[in-house]
Each structure stands twice: as C-alpha cells, then as structure tokens.
Design brief:
heterodimer; A: 150 residues; mainly alpha; 2 domains; elongated; B: 449 residues; Cyt_c-like_dom (chain A)
C-alpha cells in the first residue's frame, strides 16, 4: 500500500471494475439464456406435463434429499439421469410403470436404510413427474454425470 | 458505545443466536439421521430437517448482519440511527416470518427450490424487511458522516436485497431456473456477502488495533475489489453441467480459482493490522474470533473451494460430500465467525460491562473451530472415496453410501463437539457477566475503543 496508491484510486478501481465485471456477466448470461432456450434443452418438448411435473418436484421438496444435475442435498441419489437409469430412453412405458411402483412402495421401512417418505402422489402426478424427469434427462449437460450411477 | 440507538443491536444478536441454536440442534439431528436412518423418518423426514437447518442458518446470519450494521453505523456515521423503533419492528417482522416458515415446513408447506423454500408471502415479507432496513440505514448515513466502511456495507446490503428479487422468478425450464437461482445464491455468498464480511472486519480492526483509518480503508477497497472481480464471473463454476454453454468451464475455472485472493488478502490484512498496532485490546476473545474468521474463511471458502472448482475436477466431484465439506467450513469460517467476532466485541458495550467471560468464550472458539475442522476433514475424505467409487468406478449410489458410513459417524461426533462449543459460547455471551480481573496492560499501551 504505497503512498501513490491513493484511496480515491482504490475506490475508482473498485466501483469501475465491479461494474465492468457485472456487465460482462450479464451479457454472458443473456447469451446462455438463448443457448438454453434454443439449443441445450428440448424447446418443443417443454409441455404442460413437464411444467406440472416440475411443480410436483418442488411441492414435495425432493431437492432436500436428492440432487438434480448435481445440485441439492446429498442424502439420496442423483435424479438428473434417473430416467436413463430406469431404461426410460429405451422403454418409456416400462420406466413410468417402474416409477409408479417405486413411489407406491415408499417408505420401505427397512431398518438401517435411508427412508423415502410416502408422498401420496396421484396417478397423474407421477406421470407428470416422469415427464419432467424424462425432459431433464435430455438436457445437454456437457456429458455430466460421468457414469450412469449419477 | 457512544450512541443510545446502537442498543437495538442487542435484540438482533439475541435473535440471531436463538436461531443459531435451532440451526445447530437441527443439524445434529440431520447428522444423526445419516447414521440412524429410521430416526423420525415418518414424522419429520430428512428433507424437512435439512430445509430447517439451511434456512435457519441463512436467516440468523442475515439477522446478525443487520445487528452488526445497526451497531457499527451510528459509530461510523457519528449520529443516532434514523429510527430505532423501525429497526425493532423490522426485527419482529423478520423473526415472525422465520418462525412461520419453520412451523410451515413441519406441516409440509414449502415451495421446494433449494434454500428458497419459503412460501411467496414470506419472500415478500423478506423484501419488506430488507426495504425497512435499507431505508433506516440510508437515512442515517445521509445525515451522518460517510466512511468507506459504511459505503461498502451499504453496497453489500443493497446487493443482498436486489439479488434476492431473482428468487421470485421460477421458469418451468429447469436449466433456466438453475441459472437464475445462482443469481441469488452465488451472488450472495460469493459476492455481496463478502462486502458485508469485509466491512465488519475492517470496523473491528479499526476499533481493536487503532491502526489509522486511511490504511484500513485502502485495504478494504483492495479486498472487496478482489472479491467482486473474481466472484462475479466466478459464478461460472456453477454453470458447468446444468445445460449452460461450454465456455463457462473456462470462465468459471479461471475466475473462481481467483476467489482465493480476497480471502488470502483478508488474512494478511488482519494479521498485519494487529502486528502493526502493537496495542493489546482487552477483549482478547473478540480479537481471537476476528483473526480466526480470516483464517477459517481462507481455508473454508478459499482453499476448500479451490479444491473442486476447476472444471475437469468438478466433473467428478460435483454434488458429492466434497461439496458438503466445503459448504460447512465456508459458511462457518466466513459468515458465522464474523458474527461471533462482532457479537463478542459489542456485547460488553451493549451490556455496559468490561469484557467478561473471556476464557470461556475462547474455549468455545477452540471447540467450535476444532469440531468444524474435523467435520470438514472427514467429509472431504468421504467425498473423495465417494467420487472414486461412484464417479470413476460407477458403483451404485446407495452402495457407496454404505462404504462411507464410518465417516458419517465421525461427522456426528464432530457435530457434538461443535454443539458443546455453541453452548459455551452462548453462556459466555448471555450468561452472568463476571468482571474480569483488570487486564495486565503496560501503562504506555493505551487500548483502542
């Protein structure tokens, strides 16, 4: 902190620099916004069922146990690619049936094993959730996660 | 303490510490569920426990920041607060909103985006609270002296309020949702919160070391400049795998690697000021928390952040226990500890005492810091094992979790140690204030304020 480096200079660098970096960030975010909407996610496939499914996901706070695209709690498996783990990319109806079976069977009640609550979802809600998870599994995530295990 | 209105800080600190106790109790419960998974699984499932743990943390830290601002702004601005009554109304509303949210969570009322689970009306109440606060301190500063500390603090607090507005935007496109969600989460904790942290630390350094304000203020600009220059584009390290373009892997890696710089500068700053001053402030515990804060923030936010921030590494570690380890030490070191520092410093003035219960307070420092460090180590090892088994070998998630169960027991043990430290801290701060023996300071050293 030499004498020549004055407080006024420090102040100008701070405010000027911060504005510059924030403007750059906003511009890059705007580009990313367009990229997400048009390129990396399925624009045509983002229908009402997917939107309702996202709401089911949120209403039941799934993210406070699971992760989705790596974000969330770390108490239960990653679900960004669960659709593929269930084989949904090859057998759509099979995966939906399996998901219905899974949701109905919770909680397992097995001693010493983490318990997933019974959310009492309706048939429609599970189908919407499946639509949401299927749509999510098709997001271009730069090939993340590295393994199917999530 | 020179101004009567600073007293409102006492209520803020008390409320913050109350919610802190809730956060720790619920955190211990969450740690217990990790090793005894059937515990409360039907009555209060893990997702609700975790939501209360994280929300209580965020709210108590904010209440602590508000309290710190109400304490230091009159002294910096050399004038009474514009309205102490408004400050207390603001606190009442905030605490009511926080408690209503927690009770609501127990009854399955939430909106279910991570950390932003609050129902919309509570989010709106938070905005009202923030506006009341900004109105109050802005008017105080207009009529008083403006210093660099108050300016940076004000910019930080305005930033907190403005970026929170993104929590109202929830598009049905998950990738878009995530990108703007980070406008709240990252630009808070790796952006404007650092401004609040640095300005509180600078205030403490001026008060406790007596080093010339001009020098402290230049350091403060350097720290917050480094924080925002690295931290804003550093947001890119959250944009690697969520459907955002590949260029973020370069931008995020480079800029977030630089996020270590402001924390390193903070360590140098704090120790240099203390070394330069040659004075010994009688509140040794507050000094310990201040210096400790800079060190733990450097390790928790800086070093542990850098460990997994480069895109090629993050590709494997993203969303594992490595993230959990970093999250715990970063929040504790940077934001919990700055609160303990300002509370330990301010409480003797607010209670009209000489510094009291110093030894007990310093014991709580070592217990909390030791416990948190151990927790971070075991979670880091758990995370490395998890990364290898799950992300390299492709083992099933639940099988991997069984492999690392031992580390979760150690984490619970570490949590218990932290819990003991918390009890000591709360007792040392709010318990009976025994007068310390007069500090054995040579007479030629005059303590600063």
């Amino acid at each position: 902190m030499t004498e020549r480096f004055t407080k006024a200079a420090a102040r100008n660098i701070f405010y000027g620099g911060s504005l510059f970096f924030f403007a750059t960030f906003v511009a890059l975010t705007a580009l990313s916004h367009l990229y997400i909407v048009n390129t990396s996610t399925d624009k045509a496939g983002l229908n009402d069922a997917v939107a309702r499914g996202k709401h089911v996901w949120e209403k039941n706070a799934c993210i406070n146990c699971h992760t989705i695209l790596g974000e969330g709690a770390y108490f239960a498996p990653e679900l960004g690619n669960v659709w593929k783990r269930y084989g949904g990319d090859k057998d759509h109806d099979g995966a939906v049936t399996a998901l219905k079976g899974w949701m109905a069977a919770q909680p397992s009640g097995i001693q010493g094993r983490r318990q997933m609550p019974q959310f009492n979802l309706t048939e429609q809600e599970v189908e919407d959730l499946a639509a949401f998870l299927e749509w999510t599994s098709r997001i271009n995530t730069q090939n993340w996660p590295p393994k199917l295990s999530g | 303490m020179k101004y009567e209105s600073q007293k409102v800080a006492l209520w803020y600190f008390a409320a913050a510490m109350g919610l802190f106790a809730v956060q720790i109790l619920v955190g211990l419960l969450a740690g217990a569920v990790y090793v005894m998974p059937n515990l409360l699984s039907e009555l209060v499932p893990f997702n609700i426990i975790r939501m209360i743990h994280t929300n209580a943390l965020i709210v108590w830290l904010l209440i602590g920041f508000f309290g710190a601002a109400y304490y230091l702004i009159p002294e910096e601005a050399e004038t009474e607060l514009h309205s102490p009554t408004l400050a207390l109304v603001q606190l009442g509303l905030f605490v009511f909103g926080a408690l209503a949210a927690v009770v609501g969570y127990l009854f399955r009322i939430y909106e279910g985006r991570e950390f932003l689970e609050q129902p919309t009306w509570i989010k709106a109440a938070i905005v009202v609270v923030a506006l009341m606060f900004l109105y109050n301190i802005t008017l105080t500063l207009i009529k008083g002296r403006r210093t660099v500390i108050t300016n940076i603090l004000l910019v930080g607090m305005w930033g907190i309020a403005i970026f929170f507005l993104f929590s109202f935007y929830n598009p049905s496109n998950l990738a878009l949702d995530k990108m703007y969600w980070w406008y709240v989460v990252h630009l808070w904790v790796e952006g404007v919160w650092e401004l609040v942290l640095a300005s509180i630390l600078a205030f403490l350094m001026i008060k406790m070391t007596g080093v010339d304000r001009e020098i402290v203020e230049k350091w403060l600009y350097a720290i917050v400049g480094l924080a925002l220059f690295s931290g804003i584009l550093g947001t890119g390290h959250h944009y690697y795998w969520i459907g955002t373009p590949g260029y973020w892997q370069w931008i995020g890696s480079i800029f977030s690697a630089l996020e270590v710089a402001p924390f390193f500068t903070m360590v140098v700053f704090a120790f240099m000021m203390v070394w330069k001053s040659g004075r010994r402030h009688p509140n040794k515990a507050a000094m310990l928390w201040s210096l400790g804060c800079s060190v733990f923030a450097f390790f928790g936010a800086g070093v542990w952040g850098f460990l997994h921030t480069l895109a090629p590494i993050n590709y494997y570690t993203h969303g594992t226990q490595v993230t959990a380890a970093h999250g715990h030490l970063a929040f504790f070191g940077a934001y919990a500890m700055i609160n303990f520092a300002i509370i330990t410093y301010a409480m003797p003035y607010l209670r009209g005492r000489q510094p009291y219960n110093q030894l007990l307070n310093m014991w709580s420092f070592w217990l909390m810091c030791g416990g948190m460090a151990f927790m971070t180590f075991v979670l880091t090892v758990a995370g490395v094992v998890q990364t290898h088994l799950q992300r390299v070998l492709g083992m099933d998630y639940m099988e991997v979790q069984e492999q690392i169960a031992l580390f979760y027991w150690m984490r619970l043990g570490a949590g218990v140690i932290v819990g003991v430290g918390v009890v000591l801290f709360l007792y040392s701060i709010f318990g009976p204030a025994r007068e310390e023996r007069p500090a054995s300071i040579p007479t030629n050293y005059q303590p600063a304020e």
